[in-house]
Design brief:
By secondary structure, this protein is an alpha+beta fold. It is built from 4 helices and 3 strands, in the order βααββαα. GO terms for molecular function: kinase activity.
Amino acid sequence: MKLARMRTLDECFAEIKAMDENTAVSKCYIRRLALSGKIPVVMCGRKRLINLDGLINYLSCSGNTTEIAPEYTPSNNIRPIY
């Protein structure tokens, strides 16, 4: 049985930074993911322990990207003013 890698917010952020020094992921974003329930979290007393593998899986999932539909591009939304 594999033990889950549970880390605090600061430790998770340090691990992500070690993987990619130029990452745009912030502590605030990780905190929001944890509070919204999008990544696995366990309360241990007053500490919130985040499942590091769940966080990495969420960030690397290709389903998180959003694309702008062609009919909503800025060039199609501009109307001429007469």
